[in-house]
């Protein structure tokens, strides 16, 4: 089992796929939330990030799609350095789909309008083409019958599947999930996790912040344990979850398993 990777610069010609994160730091005022995180995620790999609240997991995800700008360090996706000063932020975000804990759907728009908005605004697709893509993705996730409804008229599980649909409609290279089931009632969790399993089976590159240890064990190729803004331990899911090497991970798993 390897510990946190050493700092390194990335040669774009050598790393054309997946995600590369090098020595990423993020501070809010005097508080350093990420303390030199380095991580590679290979094409079609599923990585689950676990750890206590406040460990920096969600901040790391937000840095990957530039919802939070890293204080320092490099982030590459699909061979493009997203942290470069010359990076096109909209184009960068189009490569990275993100699903949030609280759905983040526009309450005043219909489900169909929620899915088509980014296609029209970011990708500048004609309305008809955007609607065709949206309907196809809504059908794929089994929520096409909700197209005319507003988010408030849908269950939490339905809203989360719509949020996944919205992200997939942009045809991202990578999908990020930030505790996508934490706000759901227990009976709705399974449906969303099933959709995430299906994406993994389809070969989508995924980084998943989760408290669902059974899901991580079953679906993840690798588990990353974060604490205090750093990667403490990483390795194959079964190995990390059944044979932790550090006292900190042992203590954490004793509380959540």
- Can you summarize the main beta sheet? 6 strands, mixed
First-last Cα distance: 21 Å
Roughly what is the average pLDDT, rounded to an integer? 89
* N-to-C order of helices and strands: EEEHEEHEHHHEHEHEEHH
Quick one: how many beta strands?
A: 10
Q: Give the class from helix and strand content and strand pairing.
A: alpha/beta
Strand share of the residues?
Answer: 15-25%
Oligomer: single chain
Number of helices: 9
Principal-axes geometry comes out as globular
Helix content: 25-40%
Notes on the structure:
This protein is an alpha/beta fold and 257 residues long. 36% of the residues lie in helices and 24% in strands. It has nine helices and ten strands. It has helices spanning 57-64, 89-94, 111-121, 127-140, 156-169, 186-201, 213-219, 237-242, 247-256; strands at residues 19-28, 31-41, 46-50, 72-77, 80-81, 96-99, 174-178, 205-209, 222-227, 230-236. The strands form two sheets. It has a six-stranded mixed β-sheet with strand order 6-7-8-3-9-10, with helices on both faces. Strands 2-1-4-5 form a four-stranded antiparallel β-sheet, with helices on one face. Strand 9 and strand 10 (230-236) form a beta hairpin. The longest helix has 16 residues, at 186-201. It is globular and about 55 Å long. The protein starts with 18 loop residues before the first strand and ends with a helix.
Keywords:
disordered N terminus, 36% helix, four-stranded antiparallel beta sheet, 257 residues, 24% strand
